[in-house]
Amino acid sequence: MILVTVGTQYPFDRLVSAVDEWAGRTATRPEVLAQVGAGRADHPNIKCVRLLDGTRYAEAVESARLVVAHAGAGSVLAALDHGVPVIVMPRDHRRGEHRDDHQYQTARQLEKMGLVVVAWSEAELSDLIEHALSGSCRRAAARSGRGAELIQYLRSYLSEVLVEKAK
10 Å Cβ neighbour count for 142? Predict the structure, then answer.
């Protein structure tokens, strides 16, 4: 199963639609579960739910072969904690997907750290999903300490942001 998650604050129909289009084109018809939050829930090729409670979300992550997500820390941490490969696509504030472009910064840093693969556009997403499912992207070592590395990065990043805002 592939889990698509966009968080709960803002819709991210561009990401969910790109996965839906991929799922409709692929011959294998993979099982895809998308937590769409406030976004569209009428995608024809994937199962969409508005919100998964904590238990159902953890179960979905644990059983996923791949997580495709916005560049939100919670989504990435959950996948890393369960050793599931992650593809992120950052939200674009110019398209009204978020209030600023912090997800671009987060995605760049997570990619640099080797924690995620980043789809910088919808056009890249299909190939990245195919590559991840081909077996060349094995399940990450669960609880390998990569989550701790991400938490430390986030603490440092937030400290810098808060210091800048205080000036």
Answer: 13
Distance CA 30, CA 9 (A): 27
Q: Give dist(CA 79, CA 61) in Å, integer.
A: 6
Q: What are phi and psi of 78, to 5 degrees?
A: -60, -45
d(CA 9, CA 163): 25
88: helix, strand or coil: strand
Specify the pTM: 0.81
| Three-class secondary structure of residue 76 per DSSP | helix
Report DSSP state, residue 114.
T
Quote the CA–CA distance of 42 and 166 in Å, as a whole number: 43
pLDDT in tens, 91-144: 876 766 666 576 778 888 888 888 899 999 999 999 999 999 987 554 443 344
Query: CA nearest 87: which of 127, 47, 57?
Result: 127
Q: Is the dihedral of CA 144, 146, 149, 154 positive or negative?
A: negative
Specify the length of the chain in residues: 167
The domain spans of the chain are 2-166
Return the residue matching tokens 């996923």.
64
- The CATH class for the domain spanning 2-166 reads alpha beta
